[in-house]
Automatic annotation (TrEMBL):
This is Isoprenylcysteine carboxylmethyltransferase family protein. The chain crosses the membrane at residues 41-62, 69-95, 121-154. InterPro entries: ICMT_MeTrfase, Metal_cation-efflux_comp. PANTHER family: BLL3993 PROTEIN. Pfam families: ICMT. Keywords: Membrane, Transmembrane, Transmembrane helix. It is found in: Membrane. It is a multi-pass membrane protein. The lineage of its organism: Bacteria, Bacillati, Bacillota, Bacilli, Bacillales.
Amino acid sequence: MFFVLFVSIVILQRIIEVIIARRNEKRMLAAGAYEAGASHYPIMIALHVGFFISLIIEVVVFERTISPLFIWLFILFFLVQVLRVWCLASLGPFWNTKIIILPGANVVKKGPYRLFRHPNYLVVCIEILLLPLMFQAYFTAICFTLLNFAMLAVRIPTEERALMEATNYSEKFKKKETTILPNDQKH
């Protein structure tokens, strides 16, 4: 019963995020934005839906129980949810589950995006591993972690390429040159 309640809350959270994403998408498209990577989006949705189906089947059918490490995994899961909300709040109307690009827009580099480029993807990676581990669903944890990495290997380059082409992404996230030599001694 606890598992069903817990997973239902997480699924409800995802549904709310999809509603927010659709609202943001409509606003962005009305402002002249376009979608990049549309061809892989249905596969990503299938991966996430499949994750929850696999998790539920593995826990219910195979009678998995709460992990002995549940409290620690739950604390980490909660902290990841805080990071998730911080990501969404930082991007505001630019946050989306799709790659929606507004040409000429200034890329958001605040909140966790000051620290690294794709904190929301980090959140998803951790969640896909943690949620099954909380209920000892090891098959789901391993399989969907690997599938998610494969998806992100396509998605992140697609997103970065689109952002570099249409926004100030390259300028905002350019790599800083590191050197030991002072500026006047560089060749």
